[in-house]
Automatic annotation (TrEMBL):
It comes from the Bacteria. It comes from Puniceibacterium antarcticum. It holds the Pfam family APH. Residues 27-249 form the Aminoglycoside phosphotransferase domain. This is Aminoglycoside phosphotransferase domain-containing protein. The lineage of its organism: Bacteria, Pseudomonadati, Pseudomonadota, Alphaproteobacteria, Rhodobacterales.
Amino acid sequence: MEESQLAAVATWMRGQGIALDGPLAAQKFDVGQSNPTYRLVSGTRSFVLRRKPPGVLLKSAHAVDREFRVQRALAVTDVPVPRMLALCEDEAVLGAMFYVMEHVSGRNIDDPSMPGMDHAARAAILSEMSRVLAAVHSVDLDTVGLSDYGPPGNYYERQLARWTKQYRASETGEIAMMDALIDWLGAHLPPEDGQRTLVHGDYRIDNLLFAPDGPGCVAVLDWELSTLGHPYADLAGVIMQWQLPPGPEGRGLAGVDRAALGLPSDAEFVADYCRRRGIDQISGFGFYVAFAFFRMAAILQGVKKRALDGNASNPDKALRLGSFVPRFAELGLEAAEA
């Protein structure tokens, strides 16, 4: 971020009643392919700024105003979120809409196998992950003012149409498996079951911050894809992530001996979540996992397109992530067949 931009942000923050201890300094986080994210430091005070990326954007994407709204609403719930300070809709300040929140100190875990931890610590972290997910899906929408946070109607039908449109808009070449997955999902949409909750949209371990000295979650981050919808989309997203290869790219658990590490199986994690929400069982779970793979493939295709257009936050990483789209489509079809 340029000095002139920092000065403009500092002036705006003071105008919002946010006290600063001196000039602002900014450091860009490596994470955040979608919305560029910066840590702002002013003397002893520390903040986080999230902004829309530059360039021409897909309609409804990069909704930092929605991120701000939902996290501000969740401040009175059991879902841990950073304290929202102010939203700037005036693009003249920084060239794009942005918001500022308090910086939360915590551990970011990007490897679900959690190397270096003991069995008990791993189990406690994933138990907390299940607890917080159940808390997200238990939010009283009327009480927190989020009853209008998403449109009515069949969530999966709506989401399939939205992400198919987004995928087609960012398509850079034909991927036969992606086309087949889209067709299969359209032919196997589950019936409505009455569940309509807050949905995070990208719930995974590396979007959570944990206490420095314990398993407690201190913040759920990256609410850009949040909406009102069906809770199993989030749950299936966790299971989808674990089907990917371990390591810094996949950040999954494929091939990992979970029992030897004290980690729950997919079925055990799903059962723990169901217990917390008072659900007996989930039928047809393969559809939800297949849908999770499809949506992530569509997101990664958008990341790739932004890289090719010169608008990616981290172009090299964006192209690398975009190369996984065919594999995600393949795994989605495997989940569908299972």
